[in-house]
Amino acid sequence: MNQAPMFLNVFSLIILAILNVVFFSKKRLHKVEDNLYAFLLIMETITITVGLALGGMLTVNIPNKLSVIALLNKVYLIGLITSSSVFAYYTYCISHLYNPKSNIHKAVYFTFLIGVMFLTIILPVDVKEVDGVAITSGLAISFTSVISVLLYFVLFLLLLVDVKNFNNKKYIPIYILLIESIFTTVIQMIYPDLNYFINPSAVITCLIMYFTIENPDLKMIEQLNIAKSQAERANNAKTDFLSNMSHEIRTPLNAIDGFSQLILEEKDINVIKDEARDIIEASQNLLEIVNGILDISKIEANKLEIVNTEYEPSKVFDELVKLTKARIGDKPLDFRVSIDKDIPNYLNGDYVRLKQIVLNLLTNAVKYTKEGFIELKISTVKKDGVCRLIISVKDSGIGIKRENIDKLFNKFERFDLEKNMTIEGTGLGLAITKKLVELMHGKIVVDSVYGKGSTFTVALDQIIVDKIKEEPKKVRSSKAVVAKGKKVLIVDDNLINLKVAARLLSTYKIETEEVASGFDCLKKIEEGNTYDLILMDDMMPKMSGVETFQKLKAMEGFNTPVIALTANAIVGMKEKYLSEGFNDYLSKPIDKNELDRILKAYLNMKSKKM
Ligand code: ADP
Predict the structure, then answer these.
(1) How far does the centroid of ligand 1 lie from the alpha carbon of residue 461, in Å?
(2) Whose CA is nearest to atom 13 of ligand 1?
(3) How far is the CA of 66 from the centre of ligand 1 (A)?
(4) What single DSSP character describes residue 388?
(5) Which of 65, 74, 390, 420 shows a CA-CA span of 20 to 30 A to 183?
(6) Is the whole-model pTM more than 0.85?
């Protein structure tokens, strides 16, 4: 080897060695590009080292020198061809064609590489020594040259296919590589002896790659920045959510507070009753908001459960229609309902969640449609004992922009806020809806034209229950449960809650005693007081309801039923309290029907005709 190529290749090798040390000594990412870059560095190092060894071979005296040169030549050719193939594959991996989920391209690349290596090994290389210079020729050399040209052609094609991303900075080293290759080829055509620029040009490309895209520090920083902006987005979404929530909660609270004050001053009983109804409606809105937050927290904790029971779909849909009509109120909306007549009488599934899904969609349709119509259409497909309910909710409302469709089911996302200032919402409804549909193994799709309206379609499979429809029993007019003479102890540290519970029980003519702590409850029992039932709050300071209950149970002769009364209403709580030994569970705010059930069960009450 003469001095100039020797010097260039040694210099390239030193640069490569430094690059290797710097790159491999750092903690790096293991994305496909990083792995290819690592592979490229190793292959280039081997190729240049072998190239240098080849240059020095003729000066040493070893047996079978020409065969050793031929062998090293093959290693050199394999190194060259591998580097070219890595450049081409790398270009594919940074183009828009790359599919990270598929492994086919990997398989194609490695099959190609192994095939080319194999052919290079078996094809012949002839080495002759002429005037102290090794002259190599043979099929292996021609083959690798053709493949190299082809690979560069593929690389060029990839750049053309991805031309709309031509300004992607990851392409800079590839452009430089192409310019270097053209330069090297032209030089070689003019001066065939100057064939020693191939390796240095590849090293230059590796160097540029390191400083532009493959520098692990840069990549780490890039990843950190992505993570940081994701965290910031999530944080902003939560902040928006909290301020939104505060507004959402204040709205019904304002009604509750305002009407309650008015009631205090009002004398007309009819007006009082009207205002009390408004208070109940506002409280139910408030409860809906809290339940939405609960549902989302259950979803995040993977605790949302689907409870399948037998139900009458026609009843569920009737109720949905009634609720929607009430929500439409006097809005100028035409509510169209079309329900398949052939829906089975009974189905098995989670009808509570089914109702929640459809009601969410209907509520949105009402909220986001100023005028025109909303339509509820339910059709069915029955097969092998399964009834697929296809429920579509269509509206002629504001519609959703195409770019927002993908974000629609993300929690806390709300759109067109300037336009929708007056529409109440938390951005949780559709996130919950989607999760519920998924948990029920169903599908939900959206079709929307901005400014024209939207259609949400849900498909859910429910098991058909073969049963003759029972005629509804004649319900006795009004029924009240009375438990005169029964005595209940209420334990709660919150005085308002004590008052509410006592007031509710007084409607059953039940005598109540109230205490504000576990200690006072224990004292009452120790003093010999007896009760028919104890309602026990759990979250009390110093001694919780559960602790108080454990102490009660340990008392000799204590056998009063104790009901856990708690605002801790997340899934699994009922089971938790029952496993602690409580007789039953009642969540706050107290549902009148649930209270009825519990009093009937534990106070042996009878319904009395009013
Ligand atoms: P919320 O209605 O409480 O804001 P959702 O999760 O139910 O939350 O909906 C998220 C967002 O999707 C809404 O804020 C609204 O911008 C948009 N959206 C939902 N349903 C409709 C609809 N039928 N028409 C137009 N926009 C809708």
Answers:
(1) 25
(2) 414
(3) 78
(4) E
(5) 74
(6) no
